[in-house]
Design goal:
The protein is an alpha+beta fold. Helices cover 19% and strands 23% of the residues. The strands form 3 sheets. A 4-stranded antiparallel sheet has the order 3-2-5-6, with no helix packed on it. It has a 3-stranded mixed sheet with strand order 4-1-9, with no helix packed on it. Strands 7-8 form a two-stranded antiparallel sheet. The longest helix is centred in the last third of the chain and has 18 residues, at 169-186.
């Protein structure tokens, strides 16, 4: 059994990016998750476990719950695998009050009116104006910086093999070459007329 508590209670529990519930939180985990002596037939953790505890008004706390990677090898050395083990069956996380706007956790939670922030922020009015004016861009940057796990990529690494240029590659290359040539001519880096053909001399 794995137990996670927080002070104060009611904090969100996220393990490896998956929302598990709120504290106090319990989860059934076999003894094999804590064992550093697995066998070829035993279950094991195939990746590290990262715990995130969050609650509005408090900082997000991140804890690495596992040790590893460890290596299991058969006696004959033919079979092997990597695994991780949980460090403890219970965790007590004491949340620290958030400072400034971090207490809102998410951009969408920040009020448009700075007077509702109730934080000691320098020039809060100007900051609120900038956030309101650039909110869409801030959300876009957050999306770009987020590691996504819900997008299908490929099932086999051979799908990434390059099989040569597709149809239309030559035409696209010619367009790009023409654009670069035109830019250089306009900048005066190339002569206005081509060099004479000296192959006959």
């Amino acid at each position: 059994m794995l137990r996670i508590d927080s002070e104060p209670t009611g904090a969100h529990v996220v393990i490896n990016g998956r929302d598990r519930g709120t504290t106090p939180f319990e989860m059934k985990v076999g003894h094999w998750a804590f064992s550093k002596e697995p066998s070829v037939f035993s279950k094991h953790l195939s990746e590290p476990w990262i715990l995130e505890i969050s609650k509005e008004g408090y900082r997000i706390e991140t804890i690495e719950m596992t040790s590893g990677p460890l290596i299991w090898r058969s006696l004959n050395g033919v079979n092997s695998y990597q695994y991780w083990v949980l460090n403890s069956p219970s965790y007590m996380v004491r949340l620290r009050p958030a400072t400034r706007l971090a207490k809102f956790v998410h951009l969408e939670s920040i009020p448009a009116d700075w007077r509702e922030w109730r934080v000691n922020a320098t020039n809060a009015g100007a900051l609120a104006h900038t956030l309101a004016d650039q909110r869409e861009r801030a959300l876009l940057f957050r999306t770009l910086a987020t590691l996504r796990t819900d997008i299908p990529l490929f099932e086999d690494v051979d799908e990434l093999r390059w099989h040569g240029p597709k149809a239309g590659f030559d035409r696209l290359g010619a367009q790009l070459d023409a654009a670069v040539t035109g830019t250089r001519q306009h900048a005066g880096r190339w002569p206005s007329r081509p060099y004479p053909d000296r192959s006959a001399t």
